[in-house]
Amino acid sequence: MFDILTDKEVVARKAHKCIWCGEQIDWGTTYRRLTGKFNGDFSSNAWHLECSVAGNEIIDEIEAGFDAYTYQRGSTEERDVPFYTQETIDDET
Ligand SMILES: [Zn+2]
Questions:
Q1: Which of 17, 19, 32, 53, by CA, is between 20 and 30 Å from 79?
Q2: CA of 40 to the centre of ligand 1 (A)
Q3: Structure pTM?
């Protein structure tokens, strides 16, 4: 269960990584900052606005928990290659 503490649209003062798609949120763009407690653990996540819209489409599923960086930007389609897998490969080289 995800308990929302704050949910607002803010202008990025530095680059962030979107929790949904794993792509960069550029400095100076508006994004959604969502903070809350997920199963008792504090979390603070950045979303592209279009990814937030996509997430709302399957809100019942993701409230039960979802893997970060799993989805395509602005879509409820999963990535072919998960972002974290790409990162792991990068770290090993
Ligand atoms: Zn995104």
A1: 32
A2: 25
A3: 0.81
What domains lie within the chain, and their CATH numbers?
A: 2-87 (3.30.1740)
Structure-block tokens of residue 85: 């897998």
d(CA 68, CA 66): 6
CA 50 to ligand 1 centroid distance, Å: 7
HEC string for 5-43: EEEEEEECCCCEECCCCCCEECCCCEEEEEEEEECCEEE
